[in-house]
Recover the amino acids of this structure.
């Protein structure tokens, strides 16, 4: 008998565990879930059939956006920022802890961050399944310290970062 875990949707061999969804997912359903989430973010913010300029501030997120929108003209139009869930969670937490004014917004004039609820772990896992290497993100010391704190919370309460980001959105912080 095989000891591997199976996908909660189709029963195939699972390759990723989504702690937030509390589900094991096969490669196909993991990829679909991630792509569907980003496209849903785009649709919610009424960003459709546009040309996009890719931001370059977050290599992990930038590579994912390039992968998702590879057939789009990236010379004009809406700017897609590549900030991830961690970036926004750190921004909101630093606002509460240190009273730092937010340096990131999900929606900006002529721009949007569609990865605001996608974790770096999900993006890195996505590319590992595609056998592509991407660089991990480096942050300054204060951001790393806050992220470590948030990661510990996330381990005890999956979805904690998403809840924090949603609170930041409702309060108009990000």
């Amino acid at each position: 008998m095989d000891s591997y875990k199976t996908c909660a949707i189709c029963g195939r061999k699972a390759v990723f565990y989504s702690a937030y969804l509390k589900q094991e997912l096969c490669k196909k359903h993991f990829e679909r879930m991630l792509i569907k989430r980003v496209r849903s973010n785009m649709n919610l913010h009424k960003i459709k059939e546009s040309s996009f300029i890719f931001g370059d501030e977050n290599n992990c997120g930038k590579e994912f956006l390039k992968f998702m929108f590879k057939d789009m003209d990236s010379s004009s139009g809406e700017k897609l920022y590549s900030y991830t869930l961690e970036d926004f969670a750190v921004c909101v937490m630093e606002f509460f802890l240190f009273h730092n004014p937010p340096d990131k917004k999900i929606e900006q004039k002529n721009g949007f961050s569609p990865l605001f609820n996608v974790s770096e772990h999900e993006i890195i896992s996505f590319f590992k399944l595609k056998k592509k290497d991407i660089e991990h993100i480096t942050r300054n010391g204060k951001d790393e310290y806050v992220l470590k704190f948030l990661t510990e919370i996330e381990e005890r309460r999956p979805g904690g970062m998403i809840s924090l980001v949603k609170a930041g959105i409702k309060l108009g912080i990000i």
